[in-house]
Write a structure and sequence with these properties.
Layout: H1 2-7, E1 15-19, H2 26-36, E2 40-42, E3 45-47, E4 61-63, H3 66-74, E5 78-84, E6 87-92, H4 93-101, E7 105-109, H5 112-122, E8 126-132, H6 136-145, H7 151-165, E9 173-176, H8 180-195, H9 204-213
Parallel strand pairs: 1-7, 1-8, 2-7, 3-4, 8-9
Antiparallel strand pairs: 3-6, 5-6
Helix pairs in contact: 2-8, 6-7
Length: 215
Amino acid sequence: MSNDHEQSVTRRGLMLVLSSPSGAGKTTLARALLGNEADLVMSVSATTRKPRPGEIEGHDYFFVTETDFGEMINRQEFLEYAKVFGNYYGTPKKYVEEQLSSGCDVLFDIDWQGTQQVKQKARQDVVSIFILPPSSAELEKRLNKRAQDPAEIVAARMAKASDEISHYAEYDYIVINQDVEIAHEEIRSILIAERLKRDRRTGLIDFVKGLQSGL
């Protein structure tokens, strides 16, 4: 009986933001979370770039023209947006709000600038985590291990990492990714605790009233 009551307590979803310098393991951790959490979906961005082979509209991206993207900016339909390598990318409010209202959490893989924009629009829904490497030497080793970037690109990413890491204090939580399994469990612990926050449990008032009426 108690389990039935517990399941009746509905909640509002949250925005789980993961940020890190390149090479700290953010993408690996995001994939692990999505593979293990039933009520967690990846944020779907709108973009002006052309679809790549195999990409699906509404799943990988919402593909729009540059004119449509500009109109969406004017209508303030984005939580955050930016221009990257000549193309625009942005997070539509509508999609995120639909997920949150249904009790589903939305995972964001964005940088500190995107995080600032999201917080300005919906601070009460945001849980932000910054992922740090265990050392600069390990970060450089991971970047080199990719074997896909020339030495000058790795050096540029290392230089950019210092600036990115300087924003760590703007985040709610810090996870040091020395061991990916431990880091994954730490992020899951944060997610579980944040889901249980009183303010997110929208069905709690009615649940408590039901308890009181039976006493």
